[in-house]
Amino acid sequence: MFGSSTFAALAVSAIFASFATARPHQFHSRHARPSQGSPTIGGFAHPSGTGVPYPVSSSHISSNATANTNSSTTSKVRGVNLGGWLILEEWMYDDDSIFSGTDATDQWTFDSTPGAEAALHNHWDTYINETDFAWMAKAGFTHVRIPIGYWAYNNSNTPYITGADAILEKAIGWARQYGMWVMIDCHGSPGSQNGQMHSGHSGSVDWQTPDNLGLSIDVLNTIGSKYGAMKYADVVMGIEIVNEPSTNDGNDPEVTMTFAKNAYDTIKYVAANPDLYVITHDAWLGASKWSSLAQTLNSHTPSPRFALDLHLYQNQDTASKALDIHGHIAAACAWSQTEFLPPGSDLPIFVGEFAGTIDICANPNNSTDGGLSCTEESCQCTNIPMHSYVDSANTVATSLRDDLRRFWEAQVQTFEHSSMGWFVWSLKGPGLWSAENLVQFILQGDHLGTTKFPGICAQAGSPWE
Prior knowledge:
The protein is of the alpha/beta class. It has a single domain (about 30-360, about 405-430), classed as TIM Barrel, CATH 3.20.20.80. It is about 35% helix and about 10% strand. It contains 13 helices and 13 strands. The protein has an eight-stranded parallel β-sheet with strand order 9-8-7-6-5-4-3-13. The radius of gyration is 22 Å and the shape is globular. About 50% of the residues are buried.
């Protein structure tokens, strides 16, 4: 029997050995078998056999919940990202933030500044804490997705500051205390998987060099060995191996897929918890491109544990920003047919990121326009101050609030119908990027399980509702 470090090295070799013949996978799915044994909770087997981790109410758990992937009968993940915490993202903070007084633009440059270590530890201790977990559980969130950088485990030859794993461990303890589950998200990979700020280092994309892929596997080996242990089986539901790897700019999708297989094998080799999910972002390839690999990894197991993460936003591209509210709702409902696989496929899918905010303006006659520029007198747009949404005298803002709630419900109803569930981006952030603001000002404090506009997708013409 060879050791885990040897296994990780062999996994890296396999990535390059198979590269010459690897091809993008074609769509092919088959029915998954329901899990046996332990009762399931939130779609995941609870290792204690008791079914419900305190204090989640059994009323929120479907009596026929199984691990049958993407089934509308499975108890759904209702999660939130803890972005901007263990990986810095400058755009997510207000003017008086950890970046104030520095020229830093990302984690790499921030960690290079004088006094960075003390500032970083203060940020970790204050940005998110136990009170946030209590609030999330009360609001109805069942899961958290926690982004962390690879450098928390190996910062060799970089300016990155270590220490985030201790904070992750503390967060996992809070999640357990409040009956929540954790997806550990390796959000920043060696060499940067996309050249974006959220990878830790803006600029070039050098993730798919042999050394950097090797370091990725080594770090995942460490994470899987630690958090795949049975002592975390009641709280850590999965490990995401890479976040949003680009499909160009230095990355080859064939290598990305081969990496995913070898990362899965590595984690499953070292993890004692058989129910641990190993998740990969789809690399913007679409779910069907991953079906063949999923069949290879999942079809021979009682309960599929290789899963896909999709990120679905309607506030990033020019076409989406031009939509009125009816267009946004129709597009969200249509995702059921355009982005997901049929129920019972061998590939569990999570929506790892989406947003409750879009760029629209509401007019006094209750019509809406795309964008953030008013075309009619007295119109108001989604970038108004938060308190305006609950000002009863501000009828335009009230209409805008209801439109945003319709959009929210269209998204989450689609995700809960077509996938294992969702994680909104993010707990904290500017305006309606903040889940705290969404719950307070758009949902008006309602529990996440509350539906104000039932049948929203049926009204938009979606055949599935």
